[in-house]
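Ticket #4471: complex job returned nothing on first submit. Input attached below:
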Amino acid sequence: MALLPILRYPDPRLHTRAKPVAHVNAGIRKLVADMAETMYAAPGIGLAATQVNVHQRLLVLDISEDKSQLQIFINPEILSKEGECEGEEGCLSVPGIYETVKRSERVRVRAQDRDGHPFEIDAAGLLAVCLQHEIDHLDGKVFVEYLSRLKQSRIQAKLAKQARITA
Ligand code: NI
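Support reply: We reran it on our side without changes. The output follows.
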């Protein structure tokens, strides 16, 4: 397994729309394993392939307390949405920034597992929010794009400053 470098906002590659995974093969399973390792090491609760500069539709997440429940979604699709909720979100591609975003409270998602088998789940709460956040990444969208222009430019300035300090 290997740790993968995570793209940082406002890297333009984060705005790439990922293509469907055609075949769930050994290469995809290796990518899933590397993405999981990268997510746990960060540490984070979700990671989309877009964030490691692989523009294929897959994501990993683990919202459990003890980080024991890795969930893998290949070619995830939101089938339906219900309700509304608001919560603070962060992102491994936008380090140190936490902002309130409006999302659907419940989503039904169809995807494939690591063997390529299709499944559907009804997600609510944190899982629903996390899935919407990560699927947005696959569509080339970063959560800060839900904020005002002014907030977005402040965040860009802050991250540019951080990058200069750590470079
Ligand atoms: Ni994110």
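The two ends are 26 Å apart (CA to CA). Closing as resolved unless it happens again.
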